[in-house]
Amino acid sequence: MYYQEPFRQQLHYSPRENWMNDPNGLVYFEGEYHLFYQYNPYGNDHAHMHWGHAVSQDLTHWKELPVALEPDELGTIFSGGAVVDKGNSSGLFQQEAGGMVAIYTQDGATQQQSIAYSEDHGRTWTKYKHNPVIENQTIKDFRDPKVFWHEETQKWIMSLACGDHIQFYRSPNLIDWTYQSSFGQEYGSHAGVWECPDLFSLTVESTATQQWVLIVSINDGGPNGGSAVQYFTGDFDGVQFHANETPTEAIKWADEGTDFYAAVSWENTASRYWIGWMNNWQYAGKVPVSPWRSSMSIVRRLSLQQVNDTYVLKQTPTLPDDLWDEQTQTDKSQRLVPTNDIAAFDISPLSDIQLTVGEKNSSTGWGIYFISDLEERFTVEFDESKHTYTVHRTEGMTDFSPHFPGEHTGSLHRWKVEKVHCLLDHASIELFINDGLSVSTTLLFPKGSLSRLEVFCKDQPLVLDNVNITDRVSIWND
Ligand code: FRU
């Protein structure tokens, strides 16, 4: 099916209709990647939380399935994770081979953790009859369990967001949980509430070193306002997380755009993939789209790179090679002179743009305009001397919220920008700079159709080694 509404993204998952927020229950099982999500089946606002459901075989084409989990007497169904209980450790399955178990928050009189299991690849679910599995009478914010199997201790580990810190629990069977430790009161940003944790290990590129990464979403207090995802690297010994960073060290943000939130990763995969909700609580209820609201980011593969004495999360968009088969436009080396030269290219609202910049000795101010046929401009400016870049979102439809228009700055982990990969999809730009070492996700609502890209330079000449633009009209989502 082809979606055709204005601002409907083609490459990014969105439900056919109604409200969606956080990704939930991300797990790979027997040929399918599952994407559950916070969903209101009755309307276009955040209410009556259920788990919606979609599946994919390639992390790009998604098939929407019926709602997976509905509210009950313990409350609505808030965020959480899912695992494959391979050995039937829970004893919930008829078959020794086990099946899928979802672990989620119930938002009722208080927030408590419950589980449900599925014997038919997530199509239908049975709630555990003695829910909740973690009770709570007192703590206000106590939610978003994310569970994985910890091989070394042969236990299930749960990370849980508790207002201003993360708690870790362990269990032999997904039913009986024991509190182990807490992390975070002195670490990271505390400008808002901590939500949607995730904990996994990654190999540091070009080394044999393994590092644990603790993901924590925070709302409010993001680097450019509202919702954002911070992370810590360190060690997890099965009981406690020890951060490499000191409490006073600069906060690490996974994505310095305004529209990447509640990101979590898939369980039961060889590589680590994650996805975020492409929105911000500052204006999520007001973005001018209907009858759905809103969409997910592109799926990204995660790795770690050492930059100076710290580890930086690197994100690579996952897109099948044969996706961009409709048009390709490649331009080889050209030299731009400040300030009158520009390099201009045709684009479509669904474009993949990859720029490679040539060798240069000094830092440069340069940038990219994305321009609509109504001459609306969205600008990305690189200031290599300050190690920053700025996304200008001041044109197009912006008046639905005072928080929406603005200029959003991110950090370049290297002083030179060598490569820029932009994914444009009607109402969003995802920027992956220097192979995904700096990432920025931005929603935008141009009144016209994005049709032109221009590269400019400000103070020094700029050599564009290669510009590769591919575009499509649409892709299918069932
Ligand atoms: C994050 C969040 C979660 C919560 C869910 C409710 O965006 O606030 O903490 O479980 O959304 O929909």
Give a verbal description of the structure:
By secondary structure, the chain is mainly β. The protein has strands at 18-29, 32-40, 50-56, 63-69, 76-85, 99-107, 111-118, 126-127, 143-150, 155-161, 166-171, 178-183, 193-203, 210-219, 228-236, 241-243, 252-253, 261-265, 273-277, 292-293, 300-307, 310-317, 327-336, 342-346, 350-357, 365-372, 377-383, 388-393, 406-411, 419-425, 428-433, 438-443, 450-457, 462-471. The strands form seven sheets. It has a six-stranded antiparallel sheet, with no helix packed on it. Strands 24-33-26-27-28-29 form a six-stranded antiparallel sheet, with no helix packed on it. The chain is globular. The mean pLDDT is 94. It binds beta-D-fructofuranose. Beta-D-fructofuranose (FRU) is lined by residues 21-22, 38, 49, 78-79, 105, 143-144, 195-196, 262.
Descriptive labels:
globular, single chain, mainly beta, six-stranded antiparallel β-sheet, 478 residues, binds beta-D-fructofuranose
Give the helices and strands, then pairings.
Layout: E1 18-29, E2 32-40, E3 50-56, E4 63-69, E5 76-85, E6 99-107, E7 111-118, E8 126-127, E9 143-150, E10 155-161, E11 166-171, E12 178-183, E13 193-203, E14 210-219, E15 228-236, E16 241-243, E17 252-253, E18 261-265, E19 273-277, E20 292-293, E21 300-307, E22 310-317, E23 327-336, E24 342-346, E25 350-357, E26 365-372, E27 377-383, E28 388-393, E29 406-411, E30 419-425, E31 428-433, E32 438-443, E33 450-457, E34 462-471
Parallel strand pairs: 1-20
Antiparallel strand pairs: 1-2, 2-3, 3-4, 5-6, 6-7, 7-8, 9-10, 10-11, 11-12, 13-14, 14-15, 15-16, 15-17, 18-19, 19-21, 21-22, 23-34, 24-33, 25-30, 25-34, 26-27, 26-33, 27-28, 28-29, 30-31, 31-32
The structure holds beta-D-fructofuranose.
